[in-house]
Amino acid sequence: MSAWRVVRGGIDSVAGGGLLVAAVVVFAALPLFADTGTTVRFITLFIYLVLAVMWNLLAGFGGMVSIGQQAYIGLGAYGLIVLADQVGLDPFLSIPIAGLLAGAVAVPVSFLAFRLVGGYFAIGTWVIAEVARLITVQFNQVGAGSGVSLRALAGTNADARNELTYWWALGLAVSAIGVSVLLVRSPLGLALTAIRDEPTAAASNGVDVTRVKRIVFVVSAAGCGAAGAMLALSSLRVQPDSVFSVEFTAFMIFMVVIGGLGTLEGPIIGAVVFFVLQETLGDYGSTYLVVLGVLAIVVVLFAPRGVWGLLGGGGRVQGFPIRYRVLARKEQP
Amino acid sequence: MMDLLSGVTPGALLNATVQGVLLGGLYALFAAGLSLMFGVMRLVNLAHGDIAVLAGFGALVTVQATGVNPLVALLLVVPLAAVLGYGVQRGLLTRTVGPSPLPSLLVTFGISVVLQNILLLGFSADQRRLPSGDITQRSVSIGSINVGVLPVAIFVTAVVLLGGLSVFLARTTTGRVIRATRDDPDAVPLMGVNPRHVYGIAAAIAFASVAVAGVAYGTTTSFTPSSGPVLLLFAFEAVIIGGLGRLWGTLVGGVVLGVAQNIGAAIDPAQQILAGHLVFLLILAVRPQGILAGRRAVTA
After folding, report:
1. Residue among B106, B117, B281 whose CB faces A253 most closely
2. What are phi and psi of A149, to 5 degrees?
3. pTM listed for this prediction
4. Of B43, B92, B277, which has the smallest distance from its Cβ to A127's Cβ?
5. Separation in Å, CA of A278 to nearest CA in chain B
6. Residue A321 DSSP one-character state
């Protein structure tokens, strides 16, 4: 027996996992004692969480800076309206289906977008998002330029609907975090980390770089699509200029950068920080956005590991059991 | 396609093509700075379009305060843009230099958000246009086509500036230093060159050229504090259509984009932007190296 053993996780990950489970239990019970206004606000937090986790998967693990994730948010939102109102599916069941459809759209899109790298990939995804918006507004069936309302839930009890929406949003956020933990722990995650650190070296070690990137691109699109569907379901209305707005990507970038890019804990922290800022200072409009922008620039330049990095995370402390650690065995052979 | 064009007369099509070519010169001028910064520093400035809009508002303020022509306002706005470019590069972007494009993208995207919202606070979301006197109305008729004097003047200016930039990079000492730094930033310090200073100069040129483009744009079309992103997309499309790293390719790219947009608008005015994007995606799909690829790359 060797003197060393390699483990994943430890007391910190047990604590992190415990904290997360406790948070989920508390959140799940929230509708039982909180008023509707509170639960509606938390739906927004859960949507932010999904978006932050998805953008982090793309940029933090896949090394792909996309400024076009609003394409999938918009497609997911419109997808939900079409599935629920025109196809006649259950509106809640339409959330994951709309997400899968957005992911399906991302498959052919990736072949186009992957012809560009780095900064030009970023602008390319933005063009594609604009095309998605400009094509969507051609259809009178979904209200063309002025948008469309969700009719499928008309006449249902508002409180019951809100509770159900809340639980679905919570479930979506938990799934997004779960998927990213599993993805990063899988062999694919190892390949991803290798690509992020040095794509050429990863390729020469047998990693199919493009395939791995494509999988992440599609998963991220599906997640954003589901978040967009959730958005449509919670607001009961979709407007093209709003759901296809690049502002979503700006928020995603802000959350991930503030929390800590390339870690799983970072986007969760970032989403919570952003949610609190939005709730307290969001009414200041442009001034608030200037502050957010400056804050993001300062963090990128001077604290590139974000809040989680400042808290000592990402190195020895891990909220999720991701990295391997080498420990000395207590009993020597 | 024929079906789409059925409502468009050949004359209108020819007219749209001519206007598109003229517009393409302006797009090339927007693209030149983006292409230069990418070529030299491997950096994509996501605030590129917002710098153009900032210059437009700079010219607007100058014109309103002094009553001068926007052309005269350029004398103030362009040097200021150059200084801003040098300052932003050496103060902020220099810290993002590295193998990963991520930090520079995040910082320039942050600059874009900040600039847009500062302009919104200062100037509201109203549409603005730079006054340019009666030149806006003047036009020359060639056969059935009406060609505006202003678009022709802007096209000629753009081509002269692109030519000047090309000669500058190819012939002058500073141009050679910029190209040397582009090719090997680690070797130039051995010759006594500070690459950070060279990057600053390249950014100054990029900002100055996009400032000219922004002011020219503001005299032909109305703009708002949020016009920057769409200008960034046009500049980027011109760069990719023409082929990366080719200054004259960028002119061809700008012209292709301008023609696509104008023909799109001739078919249906609402489809102008979409037509340009679709032609860009088509070229990305069938000829990602750009339409001028295969020829010798002239400059950054």
Report:
1. B106
2. -100, 155
3. 0.89
4. B277
5. 16
6. S
